[in-house]
């Protein structure tokens, strides 16, 4: 009986580990990490924004596009929900939306788009080359898909990257993470007990 | 002054109608559309419309088109997760509504994509849309606009204070 119990416990431990790995992907030790690579992009006013400008803040970085009707608002909403659930500690967090569609997203339009979700969320764009390079650094894949009416959408990774105040990559939240899960992980990372 | 009570009653009734929440359900020929809602979205961007369609008849039906003045075009899409973790939207030409079935359009799955919004969909406003079904014909609905990142209607979590 005891061994059956032990096996049961092992199974639960294993399932627990599987659950954690599904929702939050920890960085692999020893692997080359390009996530968190420095960037220089432009904000809606045309000002250059560098990753180094955010030293001292925890960054939440999401790559998406404003014409993404279903998934991107979902993720951005999760980011904002996480910050609301963190209370006062959210002041140490900077959420960033980087568009993979610089052709259509920029200027006041991009600024109005992000402001719908939260005043703290900033939208950044770059040239097509800059975005391709940065997305590749972060391991984000995106492909333009033409639609029937001559428009296009994207097949894209939908993940949220967490960088610590030193600009080092910490963890990735998959599209299955929700605001509560992200908030608790961020608070854990901030307290240094992870 | 005999008309006064009638006028007061009329005004009262109009006020009551104006203040009551909009019909959350529309139905025709055994097809019912429940709780249609959309996320707030800015002019020129893309919106998403969610609802539940129930078919209480013994006949299969199909949603063949959606139109609304707020968007240049509207089409049923499905968000699909690929094996490599990427996500994409697949356009469906028709959406089957089988006999005795309930088809849910909700975040992360099926939705009506509203392309090139002709006006900003303001939180707490309403707009109308027309659904065309193969059997049931046309069904006009009134859509409630929820907050930009809402995951369900009346999603109050995280509303701006």
List descriptors.
heterodimer; A: 194 residues; 6-stranded mixed sheet; 5 helices; B: 161 residues; mainly beta; 1 helix; 11 strands
Model description:
The complex is a heterodimer of chains A (194) and B (161). Chain A has 5 helices and 10 strands; from the N terminus they run αββββαβαβαββββα. Residues 17-21 and 28-33 of chain A have low confidence and may be disordered. In chain A, the strands form 3 sheets. Chain A has a 6-stranded mixed sheet, sandwiched between helices. Chain A has a two-stranded antiparallel sheet with strand order 2-3. In chain A, strands 7-8 form a two-stranded antiparallel sheet. Chain A is globular. Chain A is 36% helix and 23% strand. Chain A starts with a helix and ends with a helix. With 161 residues, chain B is mainly β. Chain B has one helix at residues 3-19; strands at 25-28, 31-39, 47-55, 61-67, 71-81, 86-92, 95-97, 102-105, 110-117, 126-133, 137-146. In chain B, strands 1, 2, 3, 4, 5, 6, 7, 8, 9, 10 and 11 form an 11-stranded mixed sheet that branches. The longest helix of chain B is centred in the N-terminal third of the chain and has 17 residues, at 3-19. The N and C termini of chain B lie far apart (48 Å). Mean pLDDT of chain B is 86; it is low at 12-22.
